[in-house]
Structure formats: structure tokens, C-alpha cells
Amino acid sequence: MPKAGKSGFGPERGGDILALPNRQFRRAAPPERPRTCNPESQVSVAGPEIERLITLLAKLPGLGPRSARRAALHMVKKRESVLTPLADALRVVGERVTVCGRCGNVDTADPCTICLDAQRDPSLIIVVEDVADLWALERAAVLRARYHVLGGTISAIDGIGPEDIGIGRLVERASDPAVREVILAMNATVEGQTTAHYITERLEALDVAVSRLASGVPIGGELDYLDEGTLAAALNQRRPFG
Length: 242
Ligand SMILES: [Zn+2]
Description:
disordered N terminus; Dna Topoisomerase Vi A Subunit, Chain: A, domain 2
């Protein structure tokens, strides 16, 4: 699922206004923004091949036209150490990338690296909405588990049903006697939690424990900055000290 907002910053969004030396100007009636300040409308500075590179880079999340130009310039300056290895890596991944038939992860092999990793605990399956969530949990390096990537959430409005996100396949995997626990690591959104409830019901008949991530105060978080929902969850899920 696309994470709206994560890439919503960057120079393409009113960079010229933020550059005004006096913040008072921002409250005055906004003048028509001069088009020449928009990097997208600048004249070409390089040949069509490099311009195409810039256009493609600007489509990446978190990169706008200005960052794309900077990245492209860095690449062409560092042809041997950056551009050529990057082009090779892109080609190889482009040729081999596939979706794991077992867990829905994206990798260059099917079954994926995680499914084939014998060091992982076969009794644990962590269910996530997106591959980005799998990568995030792997960064935390707490559990050496296997995963099940749904690729979305159930959504009546968008016409996405349980089988569109492979819940039947998850139930099948969870039916394996080796699996003892399914951890629902869904986003704390209405859609994520609706999907988690549905999965819990589907797994009820099986001999597996179903758990979900705790919600509450983030590490390093200050209570005064937290929203009411997070504070309420933290209080409701309080646990003994120590
Ligand atoms: Zn896999």
C-alpha cells in the first residue's frame, strides 16, 4: 500500500516560498508564483538521455525534480564507481524480481530468501500489509520468523476482498502443524485493524495462537505530543513494571 505523505516533502512543493527570508511574507496575499522558480519548468540543461534519467529519477518516492537533478549529476560525475554499478544492479533486479509464491514477499528468487532461510523459526508467521513493513520489522531484528505479505487490506469501498490479498493462502500455511503462532503486524489504521479482525476469525478454528503488535508510547516519545488514541491504547494495554 502506498504510504501517502512520506514522499510529500521536497523542493517541488513550494521550495521558493520557504526560501523567502522573512516569514511574514508567507501570510501576505500570495503573489502568483513565478514559473521560473519551479525546477520542473526549467529549460533542459543536458541532452535527452540525461534528461530522461532525471525524469525517471524524479518519479522515485522522496525525490523531486531538484533532487533528481542532483542525483543524476552525481551519477554522471561518478560514472565508474556509481553509474555503471547502479545500472548493472538495476538490470539484474529488473530481470529477476519476482513475488514469492509462498509468502508474497518480493525477491529475486521464488521461494524467497526468507522462506528458504533454515535459521528462521518455522513456528512463527508474521502477517504484514506490505513488503516495506517486512523490511521495517527485519530492521528491528527481534524475531527470526517467516512472513506473510498481504499486499493490501480488505476494503469494501475499493472492492478488495479476502482472496484478493491471499488470506486463504495464509490460512493454509497456518494449518501446518509446525506453525504455533500468527502475529498480526498490521498498520494501526481502520483498514489494517478490520483486516486483522477478519484474519483472527478465519484462524479461530485452527490450533494456533493469534497475537497482534502492542500499541502505545513510542521509545523516546513524550506523552504531551501523543494523540488521544495512542494514549488511550497505552493506558488500556498497561503492564506490570519490570
Ligand atoms: Zn517467501
